[in-house]
Specification:
Blueprint (H helix, E strand, L loop, with lengths): L27 H15 L8 H12 L6 H13 L6 H20 L1
Length: 108
């Protein structure tokens, strides 16, 4: 099966498609300012954030107990030196455990 360009898109005497006609002298700068004016007109909704949401954000910023910086630095050094060894069995076990956890959540 052969797919070809429709004949009405062909240039006379050639096979390249014609570009659609451009809008009347609209420069990229005027197009950008027009788009900005449209978005400014639609932006009029007031948003408030609760105190609970603010406290959760502050808690998440200060919560760095999940990261063992010593271990991270040791792994970076091992990777840089080319001595880091990947344990595919441990990766497979973690992937299977995560998949099982997700399946159990969906069932409940």
């Amino acid at each position: 099966m052969k797919i070809s360009t429709p004949p009405d898109l062909l240039i006379a005497g050639g096979s390249a498609a014609q570009a659609p006609p451009a809008k009347a002298a609209q420069t990229p700068a005027s197009a950008a300012s027009s788009d900005a004016a449209k978005s400014t007109q639609s932006a009029g909704v007031a948003v408030t954030v609760s105190n609970l949401a603010r406290s959760m954000e502050l808690a998440s910023r200060s919560d760095s107990g999940d990261i063992d910086t010593g271990k991270v630095n040791a792994m970076r050094a091992a990777i840089a030196q080319g001595t880091y060894v990947v344990n595919p069995g441990a990766i497979a076990d973690k992937l299977l455990a995560n998949a099982q956890e997700i399946l159990n959540r969906r069932r409940n």
